[in-house]
Design brief:
CATH superfamily of chain B: P-loop containing nucleotide triphosphate hydrolases
Largest sheet of chain B: 6 strands, mixed
Largest interface: A-B, 23 and 30 residues
Shape of chain B: globular
Number of helices of chain B: 9
Mean pLDDT of chain B: 92
Helix content of chain A: 10-25%
Largest sheet of chain A: 10 strands, mixed
CATH topology of chain B: Rossmann fold
Number of domains of chain A: 2
Low-confidence stretches of chain A: none
Distance between the termini of chain A: 49 Å
Number of strands of chain A: 20
Structural class of chain B: alpha/beta
Low-confidence stretches of chain B: none
Order of helices and strands of chain B: EEEHEEHEEHHHEHEHEEEHH
Mean pLDDT of chain A: 93
Number of helices of chain A: 8
Oligomer: heterodimer
Shape of chain A: globular
Helix content of chain B: 25-40%
CATH class of chain B: Alpha Beta
Number of strands of chain B: 12
Chain lengths: 429, 251
């Protein structure tokens, strides 16, 4: 039996066995997945990222997730002692390993949230973000809606410490396919810092297909950091849908440093006037690592501002993909949308595919985009070497200097220092 | 200290230096003057080890070592410093962080122990006051958005930090007003000693009012065609380079 068939069977069985408030969502998603399947390379959005090859081998599904030994703790982020820690193991939320420390932060199993106080919020928002992501991989995640989590921040509440979300796969018993899912609701005038990271235990093949939806209400503020430095046996499709349903502020930074195949879908849908969002990214790849950042900014309403800046350093035979789509709908007058993607190739066999894609239907807007692909600046290299800095150190200084304006976008000091350290280690500094 | 013998060099197959001979001893200040395209900056680049240039003949000995065999960073380690005509802008790297790396790598090359943070700070403060540079400039991205004068002052500051035995100033005066030239020159003079030497490459005599040379050489068409004392510079200022062309044509 092929892996896809096994997955479908599992989803079917799961649906039959689970009769909760989320079942209609699962059923609809499975139907969609049956119809759409896994996106093939002929799908324009998946042209450079051959996700289907990840389904060419068997995975364990529904692996025992009650295992709470300390192995996941190796992936803890700095200052975790004061942070909120939400741990997913093999796609399933592990309450025993998780700790909610900040007052006002609500963390509930999604099926529970779907029937209690937050039922309306869940029903109104769950699965409603996928307007531009009607592909099989998104549907696949929703067809296994088990162990998902609802994260809520109530009106006018500022969550003091970051929310660390660990997406852990435990492959000690064999290959793992994991599908974590979260729905985040940030109510009016609330603020929260979300940090997602990934880690693999054991030396099997790990494949995570993760989806997060974040709904941001009027005057709310969200900082969102995604830090990917997973193993050489781990692949990841990470989809984050932001919906700015009221005038709000989102600041997102995506750092991708390792993994077999990493695909990030970051969608920013601005459904209200005067929304403001930043999307920054840094990918630093080597060996045969493949990192694909697909972003969408959808301007539905006037007077919004989006600022997007991704940088890439590609070594070895690694591949980088950047696709930045900006929609400006007819009503979205007077918006500002900026986009830039800069890449440095360190080797002849590294590749980058970069594409800005602007679809503008309004006539009074300001949009800019640009991309560059180049080598390390020879003149700069000679300048540093002429001061006695060895060639290796000079390269390291120049690359760090290239990366630093993205690093500086990580506003949480300890986290920035942590990522800086990862990058410095990679640079051999 | 430096002995250049019959140096031939060029770029992309075009010969620019056609047999340079020059000897510099400790404590001396030499000036090389010459019209545009005579090979002044090529000479500076070849001495510092810029890889675009190809040496096709001759030799350069620096403190008993074959300079041309050394990588640019090793040349700096041996005590050679080139102040760039066009200092490179590097967004994201502060002068302080750059110098911290450079000073310690040069010290390592020289077999000295690395400076710790406090020692480095002390050295930096000392050199900052020596060359009269503001700390704010040093915490900013290297040369990014600096004025011409600030860039050159930063070059002199780096020179002071690395304590070279031979400093080559490549058109340090270009693009500077009189005040900026005076400040840069004062920095250079503050670093000078009996043990180290300076090679000033310039187009105009002006800089030599402030950094007074012991010897002046005129470079023309890839060769040193005339050498003399500091009065030669004044003479050139008076007559321009055209007389050279006449002399050369006659010869």
């Amino acid at each position: 039996m092929s892996t896809i068939t096994t997955i479908k069977d599992k989803a079917q069985q799961l649906g039959a066995a689970t009769q909760d408030a989320l079942q209609p969502v699962r059923a609809a998603a499975l139907a969609a997945f049956n119809q759409l399947g896994v996106p093939a390379v002929k799908h324009e959005e998946w042209k450079y990222t051959r996700i289907s090859q990840l389904f060419n081998q068997p995975y364990q599904l529904g692996v025992d997730h009650t295992n709470t030994d300390a192995a996941w703790q190796a992936f803890r982020l700095p200052e975790y002692e004061t942070a909120n820690e939400l741990v997913f193991i093999n796609g399933v939320y592990n309450a025993a390993a998780s700790t909610v420390r900040s007052a006002g932060l609500i963390v509930l199993p999604l099926e529970e949230a779907a029937k209690g106080e937050y039922a309306q919020v869940v029903n109104k928002n769950l699965g409603h973000s996928g307007k531009y992501m009607k592909d099989g991989i998104n549907a696949l995640n929703a067809s296994f809606l088990v162990g998902a989590v609802f994260i809520g921040v109530n009106r006018s509440t500022e969550i003091e410490h970051p929310v660390y979300i660990y997406n852990i796969t435990d492959g000690r018993a064999g290959n793992v396919f994991a599908q974590p899912r979260t729905l985040v609701h940030v109510a009016a005038n609330a603020g929260v810092v979300l940090v997602e990271t990934y880690g693999s235990i054991g030396v099997a093949d790990h494949f995570t297909n993760q989806v997060m939806e974040v709904v941001v209400e009027q005057d709310a503020r969200v900082e969102y950091y995604k830090i990917q430095n997973d193993s050489n046996r781990s692949s990841l499709v990470s989809t984050t849908h932001f919906r700015q349903v009221g005038k709000s502020y989102v600041h997102a930074v995506t750092i991708s440093l390792n993994g077999v195949m990493v695909r990030n879908n970051l969608n920013m849908v601005m459904e209200a006037e005067h929304c403001d969002s930043n999307m920054f990214g840094l990918y630093f790849t080597s060996d045969s690592c493949h990192v694909d950042n697909h972003t969408i900014v959808d301007n539905a309403k006037p007077h919004c501002l989006s600022n997007e800046y991704y940088k890439g350093i590609l070594d070895g035979s690694s591949t980088g993909v950047f696709n930045g789509k900006i929609f400006v709908q007819q009503d979205a007058q007077k918006i500002n949308a900026f986009q830039s993607n800069k890449n440095i190739l360190l080797s002849d066999s590294a590749n980058v595919y970069t594409k800005p894609q602007l679809e503008i239907f309004a006539d009074d807007v300001k949009c800019s985009h640009g991309c560059t692909v180049g080598r390390l600046d020879e003149e700069g290299l000679f300048y540093l070497r002429s001061r006695g800095v060895t060639e290796a150190s000079a390269k390291s200084l120049l690359l760090h200097a290239f990366a630093v304006d993205i690093l500086d976008q990580i506003r949480h000091d300890a986290l920035r220092a942590y990522v800086d350290q990862l990058i410095s280690e990679r640079l051999g500094a | 200290m430096l002995q250049i013998k019959d140096l031939h060099a060029g770029i992309e197959g075009k010969e620019i230096l056609k047999g340079i001979n020059l000897t510099i001893r400790p404590g001396e200040v030499h000036a090389i003057m010459g019209p545009n395209g005579s090979g002044k900056s090529t000479l500076a680049s070849v001495l510092a080890g810029r890889e675009d240039y190809e040496v096709t003949g001759g030799s350069v000995e620096f403190l008993g070592k074959d300079l041309l065999e050394l990588a640019p960073e090793a040349r700096a380690g041996e005590g050679l410093f080139l102040a760039f005509q066009y200092p490179v802008e590097i967004p994201g790297l502060s002068t302080i962080n750059f110098m911290k790396t450079a000073v310690n790598e040069v010290r390592k090359y020289r077999g000295q122990e690395a400076l710790d943070a406090a020692e480095f700070l002390k050295l930096m403060k000392e050199k900052m006051s020596l060359v009269n540079i503001d700390k704010n400039l040093l915490t900013r991205s290297l040369n990014e958005g600096f004025s011409g004068g600030e860039k050159k002052r930063n070059e002199v500051f780096q020179m002071a930090m690395l304590e070279p035995k031979l400093a080559i100033l490549d058109e340090t005066d270009s693009g500077l007003d009189i005040d900026a030239i005076r400040i840069a020159a004062a920095g250079v003079n503050a670093i000078r000693s009996k043990e180290n030497a300076t090679l000033v490459i310039t187009h105009y005599q002006r800089l030599l009012d402030y950094i007074v040379p012991d010897f002046v050489h005129v470079l023309y068409n890839g060769r040193i065609v005339k050498s003399g004392g500091k009065e030669l510079a004044l003479e050139l200022e008076e007559t321009g380079y055209s007389f050279l062309k006449n002399e050369m044509n006659i010869a």
